[in-house]
UniProtKB/TrEMBL annotation:
Membrane topology: Multi-pass membrane protein
Subcellular locations according to the entry: Membrane
Protein name: HAD-IC family P-type ATPase
Source organism of the structure: Leptolyngbya sp. NK1-12
GO terms under cellular component: plasma membrane
Keyword set, alphabetical order: Magnesium, Membrane, Translocase, Transmembrane, Transmembrane helix
PROSITE patterns noted in UniProt: ATPASE_E1_E2 (PS00154)
UniProt domain P-type ATPase A: residue ranges: 115-212
């Protein structure tokens, strides 16, 4: 892609891009006002998140909420107002918390969208001006440079040239060259070059409007953890439906009252662990609040969950490990004097229409003057070189700056001293580039628009650039290692340079280096092996970078990608988690899930650990939910089979759920510790804890229920029938053993001492045990206070009975610990936890 202009002389001191801008004066303010009044403004609003109405609908009108609401209405009709109110408080109280959390998230997402909304550079009355895209009108002339987003549909005008990434619209990663007369579409990005385009379609008329509106809306994408939890909830929904069917049949075939049937419906509905989603929401909300103080801006709802799953982090050298503050350290002239080399370098940098950090460093060290510019090829990561063509007497020819191995394909071999100079710079972690020359000013043309390297280049000099490591780089890489995360550095620079900088930054382990040229020669199997085993990838094109990220995902890794340049957009979109620097291009910030404010690279290890902490806490919560739900489900079947009765009333089930599971789950995610979990199914990994606890607690609870049922039968007066048995006694005993058993599971879940180690490794944290003791005291307070006891429909058992049930619960603890430590059920089920 060259930038040809007319052969007529141009005013000295103007580059091709400045010529384009000056010749395109744009609209006047009067024309802008007139067109906006005529409805030709870019006023269509892109919704950045769900509306409050959508949030209310999605949280209120769910299947489980409808069921509970129907049950509460029936209870009100039967005069059981306290039961109806309890259902509303327990279920809809959680819904209200969820609505508040998501409304807060909407507010944050809207604020983020406003802060990161791309600005547009418009030319009006011959002057550049930064405006909000909503101020654009049809006919405006807009200027785009590398990294800028194209915000409305239009057509390229003037003499500029650029390469555009339209993958957000087409899904294709190829860069599309654009020149005068070519169409451009909103949602695409300028990757290299500079050009102007005229706005032809604005607002809702743009081709990409619907696509971009959908892309910017709140994404209701479920995280891996939520997917597995949804499976669990749906399984219990099926079980609940099955039990409801059985209860309905029993109502038709027996003499149960409507009140009894409704009670059973309510207890069965409580088996569905709807509180799990609330626990996840609260845990994620807490994590988001903690990350705000760490300069980590969450742009997608699933970013926290993604952080907890990341095991591979891909990053670029420039802008992440280094500060991207490049300085020209020294030059090595070839065939000319150093003064002459610096003069030509100065002219090269002074006439580039699209500058970058390297050309800026040259311009700072080597002053130059404007020349008659015939053509320009902007730098791109795919080409790895840039060029300008002069056509005047003093500086006629093409000057190129790029990777030595690329330019050497047409310059021939360098001397041994020159090669050693390049290699020594690479080993020091310096950026080394070659400056070359061709006397033919038209040598860049392959055809009208595509650039090519001149066939015979003359090397003029070798340049060394230093790039300072970020002060926090060493500590950050150590933090990644602590979090159990592999680091892979993928860069367009020389692989040996990148490896040297990685070692300086403290990247531990054996660093295996590979180049993009080597990858290009590999078949798919070799490429997959290299992606898995290599640490540093150098001279990588944007397409190869995206392929590496995609390959790592295919190999089972959960990949996070950090980028700051336009060349990182393709790979960011391939990653499980896309992370952008705040100072990076608009393109990278637009596609990122997380933006590192203040370019705070050091915040990432803490953010990863936070994500792991949240996931581990949620898994602990799920274990308690599963034990409680499985246990009550089995008791319903067992007690119905043995005694033809139902184990619990609605309020009794509620107190078991609240004290045994509900209140503990408020603390467990907060105190959870980080750590990378084994890469296997979450449900499978919990079988070791859940199945022994469920089966043993169900058996003990059933025996306690039957024991007190026998006691209630023996207490019947002479002549009474079994139908007159007071089921409040065995039900109250069942509530007591379930509450005590579930609370005793908490020290097993987080063992404070080795005596409690069985189902889980030693925690040493006494806070969980203290919470369990406090909740036990709360339960004893409820049974001791008559109004509270009557509200929950508990029978006033004597203190000796609670002591007896407590001793049974302690004996159950020893049995459960023995089951865990002998791994009897694990071996029977074939569960391998190593």
């Amino acid at each position: 892609m060259t930038n040809p202009v007319d052969d007529s002389p141009a005013p000295v001191g103007k580059t091709i891009n400045e010529l384009s801008v000056s010749e395109l004066s744009g609209l006047s303010e009067r024309e802008v006002i007139k067109r906006r009044a005529a409805g030709e403004g870019n006023t269509a609003k892109l919704q950045s998140s769900r509306s409050y109405r959508q949030i209310l609908q999605e949280n209120l009108f769910t299947v489980i909420n409808t069921i509970f609401f129907a049950i509460s209405l029936v209870m009100f009709r039967l005069g059981r107002f306290s039961d109806g109110i309890l259902v509303i408080i327990v279920i809809f109280g959680g819904v209200l918390v969820n609505i508040y959390q998501e409304s807060w998230a909407k507010h944050q997402l809207d604020r983020i969208a406003l802060l990161n909304r791309p600005k547009a550079t418009v030319i009006r009355q011959g002057r550049e001006r930064q405006i909000d895209p909503s101020e654009i009108v049809r006919g405006d002339i807009l200027l785009v440079r590398a990294g800028d987003q194209i915000v409305v549909d239009g057509q390229v005008v003037g003499e500029g040239r650029m390469e555009v990434d339209e993958s957000l619209l087409t899904g294709e990663s190829d860069l599309i060259p654009k020149h005068t007369g070519d169409p451009v579409y909103s949602g695409s990005f300028c990757v290299s070059g500079t050009a102007c385009y005229e706005a032809q379609k604005v607002g809702s008329e743009t081709v990409a409007y619907k696509l971009m509106a959908g892309a910017r809306m709140f994404r209701r994408s479920l995280t891996p953890l939520q997917v597995e939890i949804n499976v669990v909830i749906r399984i219990f929904m099926l079980i609940a439906c099955f039990l409801w069917t059985l209860v309905g049949i029993s109502y038709l075939s027996s003499s149960y009252s409507v009140n009894e049937i409704v009670q059973r419906f309510a207890v069965i509905a409580g088996l569905v662990p709807a509180g799990l989603l609330l626990a996840i929401t609260l845990a994620y909300g807490l994590g988001a609040v903690r990350m705000v103080g760490q300069d980590v801006l969450i742009q997608q709802a699933n970013a926290v969950e993604s952080l907890s799953n990341v095991d591979t982090l891909c990053l670029d050298k420039t802008g992440t490990l280094t500060t991207n503050q490049i300085h020209l350290q020294e030059v090595y002239p070839i065939g000319i004097s150093e003064a002459e080399l610096r003069e030509r370098l100065g002219d090269f940098a002074a006439n580039l229409g699209t500058s970058n950090r390297t050309s800026e460093a040259i311009a700072a060290a080597c002053p130059g003057q404007k020349r008659y510019l015939k053509a320009e090829v902007p730098f791109s990561s795919a080409r790895k070189w840039s060029a300008v063509a002069f056509d005047d007497a003093d500086r006629r020819g093409v000057y190129l700056l790029g990777a030595p191995e690329v330019l050497l394909t047409t310059t021939g071999l360098l001397s041994a001293d020159m090669t050693d100079y390049i290699q020594s710079g690479v080993e020091q972690g310096l950026r080394v580039v070659l400056f070359a020359y061709s006397p033919n000013p038209t040598a860049l043309h392959a055809d009208e628009f595509l650039p090519q390297l001149p066939s015979e280049l003359v090397p003029l000099g070798i340049l060394r650039f230093s790039d300072q490591l970020r002060p926090e780089a060493y500590e950050t890489l150590a933090g990644f290692a602590k979090a159990g995360i592999r680091v892979k550095i993928i860069s367009g620079d020389n692989p040996q340079t990148v490896a040297a900088l990685a070692k300086q930054a403290g990247l531990s382990g054996d660093i295996t280096v590979i180049s993009g040229a080597q990858l290009a020669q590999m078949d798919s199997a070799q490429f997959a092996q290299a992606a898995q085993s290599c640490t540093v990838f150098g001279r990588i094109s944007p397409e190869q970078k995206a392929m590496l990220v995609r390959q790592l995902r295919k190999l089972g890794s959960y990949v996070a990608m950090i980028g700051d340049g336009v060349n990182d957009v393709l790979s960011l979109k391939q990653a499980n988690l896309a992370i952008a620097m705040e100072s990076g291009s608009k393109a990278t910030r637009s596609v990122a899930d997380i933006v590192l404010l203040k370019d705070s690279f050091a915040a990432l290890p803490r953010a990863f650990l936070e994500g792991q902490r949240i996931r581990n806490g949620i898994q602990d919560v799920l274990k308690l939910f599963l034990v409680r739900t499985f246990c009550v489900t089995l008791l319903i079947f067992a007690i119905a089979l043995v005694t033809d009765s139902f184990p619990l009333q609605n309020k009794q089930s509620a107190i078991v759920a609240l004290i045994g599971v509900g209140f503990p789950t408020m603390c467990i995610p907060i105190w959870a510790k980080p750590g990378l979990l084994p890469r296997r199914s979450m449900v499978r990994s919990m079988l070791h804890f859940v199945i022994p606890a469920t089966l043993t607690l169900t058996l003990v609870a059933l025996l306690v229920y039957l024991f007190y049922l026998v006691v209630a039968v023996l207490d019947l007066p002479p002549g009474a029938t079994l139908a007159q048995v007071n089921h409040a006694i065995p039900r109250s005993a069942l509530v007591a053993i379930l509450v005590m058993g579930e609370l005793l599971l908490i020290p097993f879940l987080k063992p404070p001492t080795r005596a409690w180690v069985g189902g889980e490794p030693l925690s040493g944290d006494w806070r969980y045990t203290i919470v369990a003791l406090l909740l036990l005291l709360l339960y004893l307070l409820i049974v001791a206070v008559p109004p509270l006891r009557r509200f929950f429909e508990l029978y006033p058992l004597d203190p000796i009975h609670y002591l007896f049930i407590g001793l049974v619960a302690i004996e159950w603890c020893f049995i459960l610990r023995l089951t865990w430590r002998t791994r009897f059920l694990d071996r029977f089920l074939g569960i391998d936890l190593r």
